[in-house]
Amino acid sequence: MGSLPLDDALFSLNPDTFAEESTAVVDFLARYYRDIERYPVMALDAKPGSIRKVFPDAAPETGESMDRILDDVQRDVLPGLTHWQSPSFFAYFQANASGAGFAGEMLSTGLNVVPFMWKASPVATELEQVVVDWMAGLLGLPELFCFAGGGGGVLHGSTCEAVVCTLAAARDRAISRLGHAAILRMVVYSSDQTHATFQKGARIVGIPPANFRVLHTTAESGYGLSADTVRAAVEEDVARGLVPLYLCATVGTTGLGAIDPVRELGQVARCYGMWLHIDAAYAGSAAICPEFRCHLDGAELADSVSMNPHKWFLTNMDCCCLWVADPTALTSALSTDPEYLKNVGSGGDVSPIDYKDWQIALSRRFRAIKLWVVLRRYGAAGMRNYIRRHVRMAEWFELAVVADERFEVVVPRNFSLVCFRLRPRLGIDDDEVDGLNRQLLAAVNASGRAFMTHFVMDGKFVIRLAVGGAMTEMRHVRDVWELLKEKANELVGGS
């Protein structure tokens, strides 16, 4: 059987073909964003397994044109999406995108370098050092987390990676003192509001699940983790011969936006020799505004801090900043040193950073250029205005909920997250109230006009509205409130 003729220009990185096809994709995305409000925010007709039936069972034998591929994206892909960049997406936490984020992503993808060590792309390594120091300065982090202060930062893909890496560093630091057998006695601590990523990470690094302490929080503390609660749990474990290893403090929890008291928890961690990690994945972006920086007070007592620019900082997925006060603790746990990964002949008086030793994988993306473009394009003042605009929208929504006697705010708003529900009424038990709120959320989402998610707090079903989309304007927040009232009227009648 003869071989088919191949067009070399199709397979090589031909500048003309690249420009033509990339322009077609950019034009497609521009139309998508221009029309995004025409799409239901959720894929309304999708059922598990139904979408894959649209696609062929096997890959095509011969290549197809980019125009035809984009036609199929329009017909077969867009209807099955949940549109995270819709201005009426208020679910989970936002995944920001922006023009500068796209530009930075295109540069990262287009240059397509793999900067796992300094020599693999020197500027990628050193620009990463620059942007993480810039971000530390914007957040008001102590100098000890900057390279000039003896610490340093790295860009990961997610908080999960950051947590696993810092747990491994804490584990190995303890093993160096106590021996490998001590891992079975190591205990990790978090609140019942901490993201489940923490428990996954602890399992990955070998902490026995019986040694996870998920500590109760209360409404009185705004569902933040009490230092007294941690101290009591630690003292009980120490009395049993266990080893307190790691404490996770969260600034802006996923469910309620709760804030753990960093300084008080840091003092407990120092007292018992625990690694303190501050997870500010969502709310860390707000710390660029001086009025929110107080929530990181006590950060100098921490061993590590993380936040996600891909959540609320106009930086397209994926990008997570992790800072450590002692980089050697991280690299001791994660480094590899085969001969083929040595910086032979690099010269200079400064030892280079090899970011392969700051992360789980060897290969990595040039994320630094993406965050650098965002910072350059919008500037610190622009980013502060962006954050404050969303906070003002959430403040308006919170006041609207309070003013309607059918609803209640279940926990005071933090940042741009509002948690609310239909309030209990005389003659209706808790299960019925939960049922009404489930119906309300389902009705709003089924309308296609907005998308929100829920949380369960003290056994109560709570609806979350997270404001933070790059395209979200005040009119979208007003519209979702009108939609909620409309659906509430259908369920429980007017106010």
Query: What is the CATH architecture term of the largest domain?
Result: 3-Layer(aba) Sandwich
Q: What spatial form do the alpha-carbon principal axes imply? A: globular
Strand content: 5-15%
Global structural class:
alpha/beta
- The CATH topology name of the largest domain reads Aspartate Aminotransferase, domain 2
Superfamily (CATH H level) name of the largest domain:
Type I PLP-dependent aspartate aminotransferase-like (Major domain)
What does this structure look like?
- Its cofactor is pyridoxal 5'-phosphate.
- Belongs to the group II decarboxylase family.
- One of its GO terms (biological process) is amino acid metabolic process.
- Keywords: Decarboxylase, Lyase, Pyridoxal phosphate.
- The chain has 495 residues and is of the alpha/beta class.
- The chain has three domains: 70 residues, dopa decarboxylase, N-terminal domain, CATH 1.20.1340.10; 253 residues, Aspartate Aminotransferase, domain 2, CATH 3.40.640; 114 residues, Aspartate Aminotransferase, domain 1.
- The longest helix has 37 residues.
- The protein is globular.
- The N terminus is likely disordered.
